[in-house]
Amino acid sequence: MNIADLLTPERVRCIPEVSSKKRAIELLSDMLSADLPLLAEGEIFDALIARERLGSTGLGHGVAIPHGRLAGINEACAALLKLDQGVDYDAPDREPVDILFALIVPAQSTDEHLRILATLARMFSETDALAQLRSTTGTSALLKLFQGWEIAHD
Amino acid sequence: MDLTNHIILLGGLILLVSVLANVITARVGAPLLLVFLIIGMLLGEEGLGGIDFDNVQIAHLFASLALAIILFDGGMRTPVKNFRVGLKPALVLATVGVVITSAITGAFVAWWLQLGILEGLLLGAIVGSTDAAAVFSLLHSRGLELKQRVGATLEIESGSNDPMAIFLTILLIELLLSGAEHMGLMVLWQFVQQMGLGALLGIAGGFALLWLINRLELSAGLYPLLALAGALSIFGLVSVVNGSGFLAIYLVGLILGNRPLQFSHHISRFHDGIANLSQIGMFLMLGLLVTPSALLPVALDALLIGLVLILLARPLAVWLCLLPFHFPWREQVFIGWVGLRGAVPIILALFPLLAGLDVAASFFNIVFFVVLLSLLIQGWTVSLSARLLKLEVPPTSKEVQRVALDIPGQQELVLVGYRLTENTPVVRKKWSNFTLPKTVRVVAHLRDKRLLDTLDFFDLRPNDYLYLMAVPQDFAVLDSLFTQSLAPKRLSEQRFFGEFALNGKATLGELSLVYGLNMPPEQADQTLNEVIHAHLQTQPVVGDRLQIGGVELVVREMEGDQVTRVGLKLIRDDA
Asked: Each residue of B4-15: pLDDT tens digit?
């Protein structure tokens, strides 16, 4: 399995900028909930925001991975938001964030959750991978790039 | 005339070589002190220099002076905030620890060399104190930093155990000279007198000197001299009235270094230099004093004594002393291993020579050998053992240019200078909208030796110089923006602290909602700060870890006793 399997073309967006961290998370929540009609409105947003309250999910180097567990879904899914202009995300290195990768997972799958997160964190901290990601534009090219990101197994 | 010039030339050259040796040892990782000792031995009667120096009286005078200055500087450099985690364990190590170490080593010496127990104990006491300066200079030269609990304990211990070793040595010599009938109460009284007077007069003198420095109006260059003169006067006075001058001068340094002080910047710069000079001078002189060929006959004895000290006495003493403090085992092992012996034992070995004891000459050579051994074995393995025991933390202090502005009645303002390189975070990543802390002002931006007219903050290039006005609380943020980390990859922030940073006030229950941790239900309402405190049973420091479920919590920032930020590390198979 690879990271691209978590995404769909509709859940990848490149836009110039957003006004705030909250707005970015709202956008990501909307992208995710479009494919999950069973969830109550705002449920994804609330879960992601609840996680941000514990501490920013900014990884540093301009990347953030907002994430959460939700009871009403069957499998992990993700959304990517790429910005031309970084947004202040309260990241540990204070660097503005221009790559946001939101991840939600079902309530019962914690191991998988942690594995996906670990893979994402590792890939997003590799200078080459990041540079490639930043220079890639277009939904299909981005999806193709993520196909190379295999999720580590036990 | 000619002789004078020759001596100056020789002295200058020796000093030059010693300072330059700094560059080499930093690369090789050899303890600097070892190099000075060896240079001294090379210059001595059997080496290239052929200088025949064996005046114990003069050696004792200069070595004591140098030691006093080094302790003064050490005190000024010990931040009182380190006391939070280090003071109590360090004080136990510096008193009880020295006695245990000396007793075990002494018992072995008496048995092995077939001496009286008092003579054995004397040798034990002589090698009883540690020297942390070597440890820290080694680690800092490689951009490494120790966990605060370990670093603070070692630092305070080594600053405060010299008076104890000195006291024991003098006491045992007196007992040996006068016969052993005054044991017991007399010893206790001596201890109380030495330490009590040292502490009392040191603290009183320290505050008096502080007051004097802050009151007087002198030219800037005289303040460091005033500080030195005052400190040495206190040292002399306390010693004259039979107190521990070494304890007193350490305390004076501690007070001057941790209280608002006029021209503190000048004073600390000056003392940094003068303490270095003292170190170099003292070790060169001690190297000169020894006769290398005389070391050979005692080599086997000294080797065994050294091994007992390093492998048995010190670790055992450390383990016993740290029992009440619940130090993690890795930290105990490290503190036990890094009981580096420095100049103090060699200086103390001069005492029996001055007193004219029979065993004095062989003691001096044995002690010299033990110190060499300790510097070689322990000194050379400091960074390695810190790494193996996982006691390093990502360094916070970096080499940057800082000039404190002395504005009377004003909170401390500092002019901070950065030279940007290609690897400076702001340059490398071409950031466009990073934010500076509100209290920071940009003062100047230089390119090609010219002051830029406009402060174009968003066009920072390599080799630019940037000068900012800031308060000390901002240093960490500024350093992270404008300096590149020299730390090895294993100490990069993400590797060390984990992927995410959490608030210390988040509860374990909230965390479990996101990560599904296995935890007892009664822990759900506990904050991460409380969980970490409960788990450690001792004061947390940055770098302490705790594993829960599939994640690891790492203490990332502290404010006083509270854990304010916690790193969340996902445990990975490839980690």
From this structure: 888 889 888 888
Summary mean pLDDT of chain B: 84
- Mean pLDDT of all residues in B263-271: 83
- Please give the residue of chain A at the shortest CA–CA distance from B527: A54
- pLDDT at residue A23 tops 70: yes
User: Structure pTM?
Assistant: 0.81
Mutate to test the interface with B, among A19, A63, A94 (most CBs of B within 10 A): A94
Contacts of B549 in chain A (CB under 8 A): 110
Domain boundary, last residue among B482, B508, B537? B482
Same domain for B412 and B372: no
- Residue from B514, B564, B566 whose CB has the most chain A CBs within 10 Å, to mutate: B514
d(CA A79, CA A98): 14
CATH of the domain at A140: 3.40.930.10
pLDDT band at B574 (very low <50, low <70, confident <90, very high): very low
Could you tell me which of B443, B370, B462 has the C-alpha nearest to residue B405?
B443
Q: What would the pLDDT profile of B454-503 be if each residue is shown by its tens digit?
A: 666 667 777 888 888 888 777 777 777 777 766 666 667 777 888 888 99
Q: What is the pLDDT of residues B389-407, one digit of tens each?
A: 988 887 765 566 777 776 6
Q: Does B489 touch chain A (CB under 8 A)?
A: no
Measured distance CA(B425)–CA(A94) in Å, rounded: 11
Please report residues of B whose CB lies closer than 8 A to that of A59.
494, 499-500
Q: Taking residues B235-242, what's their average pLDDT?
A: 93
Q: Give the β-pairing of B441-447 and B392-393.
A: unpaired
B373 and B416 in a common domain = no
Residue of B nearest to A49 (CA): B514
Same-domain check for residues B461 and B496: no
Per-residue confidence band for A46, with pLDDT thresholds at 50, 70 and 90: very high
The SS3 assignment for A87 reads: strand
CA distance B506 to chain A (A): 5
Lowest mean pLDDT among A77-81, A89-93, B479-483, B502-506: B479-483
CATH of the domain at B555: 3.30.465.10
Shortest alpha-carbon distance between residue B389 and chain A (Å): 25
Q: Which residues of A are catalytic?
A: 67
Q: Are residues B373 and B234 part of one domain?
A: yes
Could you tell me whether strands A12-15 and A77-87 are parallel, antiparallel, or unpaired per DSSP bridges?
parallel
Domain boundary among B330, B363, B388: B388
In chain B, count H helices and then E strands: 25, 11
Residues of B with Cβ-Cβ distance to A154 under 8 angstroms:
573
With both helix axes pointing from N to C terminus, report the angle between B148-178 and B185-215 in degrees, rounded to the nearest 10.
130
Total beta-carbon pairs less than 8 A apart between chain A and chain B: 90
The torsion angles phi and psi of B47, rounded to 5 degrees, stand at -105, -160
Which amino acid does the sequence have at A45?
A: F
Identify which of A51, A86, A114 has the shortest CB distance to residue B433. Answer: A86
Residues B312 and B201 grouped into a single domain: yes
Domain that holds residue B512: 491-574
Angle between helix B32-43 and B2-28 (nearest 10): 150
Residues 3-62 of B with CB under 8 A from A: none
Residue B287 lies in a domain: yes
Measure Cα distances from B257 to B207, B227, B266 in Å. Answer: 11, 11, 12
Q: Which of A57, A110, A152 sits opposite B573 (nearest CB)?
A: A152
Distance (Å, rounded) from C-alpha B529 to C-alpha B398? 28
Report how many domains make up chain A.
Answer: 1
Of B480, B499, B565, the CB nearest to A93: B480
> B residues 394-453 near A, CB within 8 Å?
425, 429, 431-435
